[in-house]
Amino acid sequence: MIRLLTALLLFVATSVAHAGDPWVLVDTDRKEIRVYAEGEELLHLPHIAIGRGGVSHLRERGDKTTPLGDFRVAWVNEDSRFHLFFGLDFPNFHHARTAYNSGLMDLDEFLQITDALRERRLPPQRTAVGGHIGIHGVGDGDPNLHARANWTNGCVAVTDDEMDKLAEYIRVGTRVVIAGQAELTAKAEEGALPLSP
To answer: How far apart are CA 177 and CA 171, in angstroms?
Structure first.
């Protein structure tokens, strides 16, 4: 129980950002990315691709869905086969707790994730809910497919040129909100969008 409480406190502590920091909004319904800082839009990328399986609140490994939620950039791979890769802190506490409460994840795996988060390490990436979720370019992929369809295994994809533009605003720790219109409306009513990081 103490480990659960510690993990919750870590989750809350790492969710706080400086008000002026850029943050990324991925709108899965409109299929676009917007970058904001201090209430101003800094960048708009009007076409994204998401997972072939659509989006989900409770992702399962291999289902090819893009997880909805509030994340942080946890690592950057500049030598990715997808040109550039911004890895997210998935699974985060919320997703691990949801998977555990639903019976998808066992206690041992849940505690491995929360221990990693508490110790400010990357959570395990081979879990019941999957891993290796991020924002990336097309890289070695098919640009024509990118223009026509959702093609990823759960990540968010933009063109390589758009990734280079996005890279100007993203660093480890940058907040990334992945949401559809229903989630965005709820967050706006809570006062969490679009002005707060």
So the answer is: 15
